[in-house]
Design a protein that fits this description.
The protein is 25% helix and 29% strand. It is α/β, with parallel strands linked by helices. The chain has three domains: 2-127, Rossmann fold (3-Layer(aba) Sandwich); 154-378, ANL, N-terminal domain (Rossmann fold), CATH 3.40.50.12780; 382-448. A nine-stranded mixed sheet has the order 2-1-11-10-12-13-14-15-16. Strand 12, helix 7 and strand 13 (248-251) form a beta-alpha-beta unit. Helix 1 (25-38) crosses helix 2 (53-64) and helix 4 (153-167) crosses helix 5. It is globular and about 60 Å long.
């Protein structure tokens, strides 16, 4: 069974969601069997996810029965859902029961219901699927791209095992799972702790909600956040709270400012906790590197070294690859958690392993003399702002398709910059982008210019 769930203590609590309801490992196995009775063959489903027990049961049951899910947010914007739905044509949906009537009556045949979620049959047929394909996750799904990452069963298990070893997880852990399930980092927290036989505190509430704090203070031993998570926590004076059970704070999803990094590292040292920064991508089932806690103060903002089971290298500007010594260039990762490749339509779901355990990350890294890595830039045109991956080319297409303007997008890991040629739309674009990407409009700067200059190939120059 998926993540060896059937080999765990069946009476041990596997998950408690913020309703207070708990499920044991025995329950996860029982509901996987019920799911198999309702859907006894391999096919493609969409999971409209929330951080709730019902949503989690869809994930564990599908994977345990070799049913392939595409996990997206239950709050996915309708035009994006429609695009994915037509591109991939799932035979079933796993969605909150209360939302079944939101969809066309032509595909609302409910075949199974439990814990507030229902399995609904659509009008599409069983697709052809690569035998080791286990899971699909969006890359820049918030901007409307149909591009997905294809995971194998071994990818998920290898990442879960690597992360378990990295954090030295045991069955005694009680992990806050507050990052959304449809985020690769959120799913990594879930999979690694289930693999370890630990307990998940599955929270669907905002960090500003009293329900989150109630769960955190109920004995949580670890918290995983993205940079924006820690910005919110700092405003709430998180480091001044008495949290004696919290042993590990860990971060991923983008680069922390050095001031924030040092604040967390000092807090961890003073309170006898561990601050462990990690680095990853959806293309590697979330995690790829980490900085050991004891080096947090000595090597600020370093992504550290490869996680257990992985290997990092650098390819310099001349194409030379090295694994040790000082170097700068594109970072390359090797490991069993490297995913199969991408999909952009239903036909791609028959593809096999195109990466063969090696991924060129597109990130420019510096390796110091001790062998620790620092991200210094990107080769690809995307930003990571507060854990949100923003594809700049996709965003430009989205703006030009909806507004009468030319545009060019750029920015940093702290701010998205959009240059436009029509001043009439300057006030409405920020809210439009917030709706599409969930990036707060305060992190968006609009600049009006006379003309966006392009060369004969159409590439923007001098912007």
């Amino acid at each position: 069974m998926f993540l060896n769930l059937n080999k765990k203590n069946p009476d041990k609590i596997a998950v408690i969601d913020d309703s207070g309801e708990s499920l044991t490992y025995g329950d996860l196995c029982k509901y996987a069997e019920e799911f198999a009775s309702a859907l006894p063959y391999r096919t493609l489903i969409f999971i409209l996810s929330e951080n709730t027990n019902g949503s989690l049961l869809g994930y564990t049951s599908a994977l345990s029965n070799r049913v392939v899910p595409l996990i997206i947010s239950n709050k996915t914007e309708q035009t994006l859902f429609d695009s994915l739905y037509e591109k991939y044509q799932p035979e079933y949906l796993w969605l909150p029961t209360q939302r079944v009537d939101d969809f066309d009556s032509n595909f609302n045949e409910i075949v199974y219901t439990t814990h507030g979620y229902s399995l609904v049959k659509t009008s599409f047929k069983t697709p052809e699927l690569y035998e080791e394909l286990s899971l699909l996750l969006p890359t820049s799904g918030s901007t409307g791209s149909p591009k997905l990452v294809r995971h194998s069963y071994r990818n998920i298990e290898a990442n879960a095992e690597n992360v378990m070893n990295l954090f030295e997880l045991t069955s005694d852990e009680r992990a806050m799972a507050v990052l959304p399930m449809h985020y690769t980092m959120g799913l990594s927290v879930i999979a690694s702790h289930l693999y370890a036989g630990a307990t998940l505190l599955l929270c669907n509430k905002s960090l500003l909600d009293a329900g989150f704090w109630k769960m955190l203070k109920s004995g949580a031993t670890s918290f995983t956040g993205v940079p924006y998570s820690y910005e919110l926590l700092m405003k709430l004076r998180f480091t001044r709270m008495d949290l004696p059970n919290l042993k590990i704070i860990t971060q991923g999803g983008g680069k922390l400012k050095e001031e924030m990094w040092m604040h967390l590292a000092n807090y961890a040292q003073e309170k006898g906790k561990k601050f462990i920064a990690t680095y990853g991508q959806s293309e590697c089932t979330a995690r790829m590197a980490y900085l050991p806690a004891e080096l947090a103060l000595a090597k600020p903002c370093s992504i550290g070294i490869a996680e257990p089971g992985g290997k990092l290298s650098i390819v310099d500007a001349e194409g030379n690859e090295s694994f040790e010594g000082e170097a700068i260039g594109e970072m390359v990762y090797r490991g069993e958690n490297v995913t199969l490749g991408y999909a952009t339509c239903k036909d791609d779901l028959t593809k096999g392993d195109e990466n063969h355990g090696v991924i060129h990350t597109g990130d420019i890294a510096r390796r110091d003399g001790d062998g620790y890595y620092y991200i210094v830039g990107r080769m690809k045109r995307f930003l990571k702002i507060f854990g949100l991956r923003i594809g700049l080319d996709e965003l430009e297409n989205l703006i030009c398709s909806n507004f009468d303007t030319d545009c060019y997008c750029s920015g940093t890991d702290e701010k998205l910059i959009i240059k436009i040629t029509n001043s009439d739309v300057i006030d409405i674009i920020p809210m439009f982008i917030e709706e599409k990407t969930h990036l707060f409009h305060q992190r968006i700067e609009i600049i009006v210019i006379d003309k966006i200059i392009r060369n004969e190939a159409g590439k923007v120059i001098n912007q």
